[in-house]
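Weekly puzzle thread! Below is a chain. First person to post its structure in token form gets bragging rights.
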Amino acid sequence: MASFSVPRRAFWGDVRFLVGIALVALSIAGVWLIVSAFDDAVPTLQATRTITQGEVLTSNDFQVVDVGLGSLADDYLGPDDIPTGSIASRTLESGELVPSSAVTDADRSRSTTIVIQSSTGIPEGVEAGTVVEVWQAPPLDEGRSFDVPRILVADVIVHDVLDAEGVLADTGTQLEIVIDRADVADVLAAITGGAALSVVPAGVGS
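Winning reply:
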């Protein structure tokens, strides 16, 4: 009587079976991680516009987004984390999540804003948040000519570019800049002394 042997399963068939199980397990683990990350999302403040250093912060400057920050959650501000009277300690770009280090109390700020007029207009691209240098050319011969330009204040931040009106519209561009309080006296002295002021993006021409 003839006997039949049962064929052995191919080794590669077993490997493919094990690989399939591993892929299923990885897929399940991936879904679990995504769900866990979503569950860990916390409401976080996001700037809706560029906020310059020294600017007073209000609820209108932000929107609340749910973000999974993990262990970094305590480093960012939530909807109820900005006390009244807080200001930006540095410039916040539009769309940026707000770290706690970017907010400080107004009483602790060493900066303020001042309006200047650039006699040569402003370079293209200079806008709120741009870091610039303010140059001055002191007057000579009772204002009939000017001395060689020199840096008056370095690394200041443009708070706003203002539209000059009337006679000022023909003589230059006004800007509101954020400067250290220690530099206010020098800037005011240059303005009242009749110096010609110019604004240059930081690192250009110095």
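Puzzle host: Confirmed. Bonus trivia for everyone else. The helical segments are 11-39, 184-192.
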